[in-house]
Amino acid sequence: MRAVPLCLLVLCPIPCWAEDLKVLVVLSDDSAPYQSFASALNSSLPAMVQTTVLEHPGQFSPDVSHADLIVAVGMKATQSAIAQTGIPVLAVMIPRMGYEDLLAQAAPKKITHSISAIYLNQPLARRLDFWRAVLPDRRRIGLLHTPDARIDVERMRQDVAQRGGSLVDRQVLSAEELFRGLESVLASSDVLFAIPDSMLYSSSNIRNILLASYRLGVPLIGLSQAYVNAGALCAIFSTPEQLAEQASATVIGFARTGKLPAPQYPVSFTIAVNQQVARSLGVAVPSQEAIRIQMDNAKEGRH
Hints:
The protein is of the alpha/beta class. The chain contains twelve helices and eleven strands. The protein has a six-stranded mixed sheet with strand order 7-6-8-9-10-11, with helices on both faces. Strands 2-1-3-4-5 form a five-stranded parallel sheet, with helices on both faces.
């Protein structure tokens, strides 16, 4: 990438050399969420930024990988981008734990190009503020986790306590222990808090977890719209379009500076509530506007 005179960078709010910026968008597959992200990213970038979309990591080749920046969408795309190129990589729609695992795997290879991420999952503080805004009278948070989740339970316990609650946690060491652990946690909790833990909250387990919590009148705070559709009371998450908007801003920042920022959590998020579950459990859920105001107030109160 050629050098740009400092005076021109100062004078141009969007860089004069942005027309030369080539962005390669690599999707993990051609499923709808990834396609939605790619479409939204392409729509939100300035017209002078040239984008090429690969719908599968297997489409990588020397002929198509000439770019100034790769936007890798999902775990498979990120793994492929890190392994096959020395071009800076922005990973998106990837959980923080997955991103950190990929970096650890790449470390022995002495990767020298810059790599950053916009995580898929929400920051813990935001999710805890969401819990307090939606269920202010339910103070006992149930938490199931495995060692692989690498969650700081004591830190979470403190964060929950600062919000007037208590944490009821149980570590599960194997899939066979899941439902014994779930029964133990549900017996002492009045809300169940899902975390990104693929061994516990897998597609084969989630329905039974939801049924067990529903029978005991313990609402589950999920991780996505899919959780809410399946029977979770509520969730906050970032849509592909919201993540694409943040990625677009990051790409434009890269065009200005030639550098990627530190990994970051999503800025924008969506609230989803299953009103049928709320009625069945006798839970009066505030409006989305009221939830956001309460969350904003809680965040401002910590600063």
